[in-house]
Specification:
This protein is an all-alpha fold and 212 residues long. Helices cover 59% and strands 0% of the residues. The chain is built from nine helices and no strands. Helix 2 packs antiparallel against helix 5, helix 2 crosses helix 7 and helix 5 crosses helix 6. The longest helix is centred in the first third of the chain and has 46 residues. The chain is globular, with a radius of gyration of 29 Å. It starts with 6 loop residues before the first helix and ends in a 5-residue tail after the last helix.
């Protein structure tokens, strides 16, 4: 007994063909995806710009406070313009770490005061304007590294034996500031709400990537 398959009965078992999108539909889908990506990119750029401006304010506020003694980190009447030293209080108070004696020697030195204040001003101005963010990241990372060593979070006890009260032996706000500066430079955050794009077109800057 021979079995014969009827082609007409098998047609219902065949998968239905999926209609291909028309050229207009494909173009519309591509445009929507592109618009979504552009919106996300703009949002990220603006977020980076806000972070850049907030970080700039942090550095510039510290500079102004130490210049005029606004009564916050620098007491009234102890500003740099009033004869105070921006570094004496902090560096003379270093009480742990491998560079404790070195920092005591640097405390109040004219070159240390000038280097610290110019660093605050230069980094803050670069962030506020959006130019030379790579240099700002380099200088800021060096400054934050020295301040991290001065506070020396790995120490459990100070040189006098008292608890250091360190909350984390590795990561503190100095490390976070350094990371933020590097990320802002990598993200070219000065191109949004800043002069970064115009700065990058200057011939000298275009020839020297470190200046961007």
């Amino acid at each position: 007994m021979t079995l014969h398959q009827n082609p007409r009965r098998l047609t219902g078992l065949r998968p239905s063909a999926t209609p291909r999108p028309t050229a207009g539909q494909a173009a519309a889908g591509g445009t929507a995806a592109h618009d979504g990506a552009s919106t996300s990119a703009r949002a990220l750029a603006r977020t980076a710009a806000v972070l850049r401006l907030l970080t700039a304010f942090t550095f510039l506020w510290a500079f102004v406070d130490k210049i005029f003694g606004l009564g916050y980190a620098t007491g009234a009447g102890r500003g740099w313009t009033e004869g105070g030293s921006p570094t004496r209080g902090f560096l003379s108070g270093v009480s742990s770490g491998p560079m404790e004696s070195t920092f005591h020697t640097w405390a109040g030195a004219a070159w240390a005061d000038w280097a610290f204040m110019l660093g605050l001003l230069g980094i803050g101005a670069a962030l506020a304007s959006g130019v030379a963010l790579r240099l700002a990241a380099l200088a800021g990372t060096a400054m934050m590294t020295l301040m991290w060593v001065a506070e020396w979070p790995p120490a459990r006890h100070l040189s006098d034996g008292s608890p250091s009260m360190s909350t984390n032996p590795f990561i503190d706000y100095h490390v976070l500031y350094a990371v933020v500066l590097v990320l802002l430079a990598v993200a070219q955050a000065g191109r949004t709400w800043g002069l970064g794009a115009a700065w990058a077109r200057l011939p000298l800057v275009d020839r020297n990537r470190l200046l961007r």
